[in-house]
Amino acid sequence: MELLAIPTFAINSQGRVLIWNRACERLTGVPAASVLGTDQHWRCFYSMPRPTLADLVLQDRQFDVPQLYDQHVRRSADGAGLTAQNWCDMPRLGLRRYLAADASPIRAGDGTLVAVVETLRDMTDEKQAQLALEQLATRDGLTGLANRRCFDHTLQAEWQRALRQQQSLSLLMVDVDNFKQYNDAYGHLGGDECLQRIASAVASEMRANDLVARYGGEEFAVILPNQALKGAAIVAERIRCRVEQLQLPNMDSHVTVSIGAATALPAPHNEISQLIATADAALYRAKHMGRNRISLTEAWEWAEKKLAQS
């Protein structure tokens, strides 16, 4: 094991390091002398205490793997060996690395567990390339916001979560007023810059768990999880004011946005399409009432009125 080109370490039945080969030294920046005989090998990979994959095999804690690792599988036929991948802090090196780990038990003739061996592979470059591809697949090329595909996926996920947790879910539809005239006056390059600045303004008003996406053309959509209609109205008004403050010239005035807001409490008999349609209807009302304003609707109330009318 000492001469293997693959980073490898082994722990005994008490969780103390037996082997820390040279490849593992190079990977972690930690010399073997610092870790042999100790149970502090986790410090080579993480800033906060947490078990390595070898520790989980030793402690028969395979059911904790999903909470600790991004990807994981059971490798051996008896289910004792584990394979997993995760980001590691690598404190000694001062940088994060994405490592693939394999941990396998070593047993005596009577089946007693005497040690666990863990091998490691640095997959940082592959992971970063994968993330870059995912970014291209989910981001709008012009504005850097989430694209329509990402919006659809996220809205579906948030709807299901709101359904499970019985929380409200709000949606804003944001449309740039008189954008055709802006394009005619400043050309498509000017129009692109206008959309980029508006995208930044909208994104600046988001919480960490909100999502703003380019829905299409000059229209943006904002998903507000666990946000009631009153809260959605406050966010919508902040967005409207922020865009107005950009003071982008358009005809005799400045570029503004109209916003339709809708809120629903998801239930088994409701559908996501109803929430989108309600927000769209609210946006149409804002446009019809003179633009540069917000219009609000609660989706389930709207649905009940439609049913009553029918």
In the CATH scheme, the class of the largest domain would be: Alpha Beta
Overall structural domain count: 2
Please name the CATH topology of the largest domain. Answer: Alpha-Beta Plaits
Secondary-structure-based class equals: alpha+beta
The name of the CATH superfamily of the largest domain reads Reverse transcriptase/Diguanylate cyclase domain
Task: Give the helices and strands, then pairings.
Blueprint: E1 8-12, E2 17-20, H1 22-28, H2 32-35, H3 53-58, H4 65-68, E3 71-74, E4 82-88, E5 97-107, E6 113-122, H5 124-138, H6 148-165, E7 169-176, H7 179-203, E8 211-216, E9 219-225, H8 229-246, E10 249-250, E11 253-254, E12 257-264, H9 272-288, E13 294-298, H10 299-309
Parallel strand pairs: 12-13
Antiparallel strand pairs: 1-2, 1-6, 3-4, 4-5, 5-6, 7-9, 7-12, 8-9, 10-11
Helix pairs in contact: 7-8, 9-10
Task: Provide an overview of this structure.
- The protein has 310 residues and is α+β, with helices and mostly antiparallel strands.
- 40% of the residues lie in helices and 25% in strands.
- A 6-stranded antiparallel β-sheet has the order 2-1-6-5-4-3.
- Helix 7 (179-203) packs across helix 8 and helix 9 crosses helix 10.
- The N and C termini lie far apart (76 Å).
- Residues 1-76 form the PAS domain.
- One of its GO terms (molecular function) is diguanylate cyclase activity.
